[in-house]
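About this split. The held-out portion is used to measure sequence recovery: a designer receives only the structure tokens and must propose an amino acid at every position. Recovery is the fraction of positions where the proposal matches the reference. Here is one held-out target exactly as it appears in the evaluation file.
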């Protein structure tokens, strides 16, 4: 049995080519932030210019983490979760995520209010299958979350634990967007585990290329997304954070309606020219929707999607209007 794991999904390919001019050589730094290893690559031959920009990018991401991490006692969200029945002014980052979720029309499949539900599974510890009564109570409590003009609270407590906010399903995307702003348009690539954002034109003229990993075989690339301009890629999968009990896989992507792990998919990748925040929200929301509804949403909104269903079959949708190429490298592992 495999235990709790957290693996990178978006594998960046062909970052630079041998023989490029010195002015085209990238400057890369990697640091621990947002609960994963984040790499920032800036295409600039002048380290004195690139290094401060990279520092500013990491500072922007750290600021998002400091606002939104429910596990950091000093964060704004942790303070909210200590007294969730009181009315609180939400931090700007939380407002941005909640407002964008509503704007994308996916509030039924992406909820920022599942902190109390997720806690019943203890994904970061022993791995627990919740008691059905406690789970139902937690789901009902989560559904009482309401916000008006950035002021929010929960309407009721629950018998086990307490309701709370967890915006981890979108915080990486928002952090990547803020990092991109700090890089001020310099051609750059930012990777943060399951999320990648690239923008600008590479000096060597090559497109950005991001690989999509097999959800059952770490490191094996199933498909490659290519784009010459802005490219955002986000993957959600049942293999990122999970445990198994009685032959059943319990993963961290929970259906807000039931509080149970969403079924029907092993992984789902959203890609296109949208913001990293949009891609991050949508990869989770569409995973919860399941394959048919996810593909229908993608087609209706001109999104690129590549998914592997729970039988190991791959399906994809790439609208003709999207300046992105999807190349299939292999079939998923059965």
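Reference sequence for scoring:
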């Amino acid at each position: 049995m495999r235990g709790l794991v957290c693996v990178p999904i978006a594998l960046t390919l062909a970052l630079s080519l041998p023989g490029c001019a010195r002015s085209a050589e990238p400057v890369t730094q990697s640091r621990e932030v947002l609960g994963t290893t984040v790499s920032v690559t800036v295409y600039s031959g002048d380290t004195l210019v690139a290094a401060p920009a990279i520092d500013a990018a990491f500072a922007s991401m750290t600021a998002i983490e400091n606002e939104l991490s429910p596990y950091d006692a000093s964060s704004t969200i942790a303070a909210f979760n200590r007294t969730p029945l009181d009315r609180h002014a939400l931090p700007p980052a939380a407002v941005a995520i909640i407002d964008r979720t509503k704007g994308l029309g996916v509030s039924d499949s992406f909820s920022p209010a599942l902190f109390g539900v997720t806690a019943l599974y203890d994904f970061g510890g022993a791995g627990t299958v919740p008691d059905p009564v406690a789970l139902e109570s937690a789901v009902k409590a989560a559904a009482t979350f309401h916000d008006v003009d950035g002021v929010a609270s929960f309407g009721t407590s629950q018998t086990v634990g307490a309701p709370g906010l967890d915006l981890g399903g979108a915080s990486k995307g928002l952090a990547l967007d803020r990092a991109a702003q700090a890089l001020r348009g310099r051609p750059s690539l930012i990777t943060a585990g399951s999320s990648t954002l690239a923008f600008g034109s590479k000096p060597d003229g090559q497109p950005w290329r991001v690989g999509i990993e097999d959800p059952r075989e770490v490191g094996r690339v199933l498909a490659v997304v290519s784009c010459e301009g802005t490219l955002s890629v986000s993957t959600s999968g049942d293999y990122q954070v999970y445990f198994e009990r009685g032959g059943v896989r319990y993963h961290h992507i929970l259906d807000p309606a039931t509080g149970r792990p969403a079924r029907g998919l092993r992984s789902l990748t959203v890609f296109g020219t949208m913001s990293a925040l949009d891609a991050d929200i949508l990869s989770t929301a569409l995973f919860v929707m399941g394959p048919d509804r996810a593909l229908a949403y993608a087609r209706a909104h001109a999104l690129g999607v590549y998914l592997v269903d729970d039988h190991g079959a791959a399906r994809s949708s790439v609208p003709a209007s999207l300046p992105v190429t999807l190349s299939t490298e292999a079939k998923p592992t059965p």
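Annotator remark: The CA atoms of residues 97 and 170 lie 7 Å apart.
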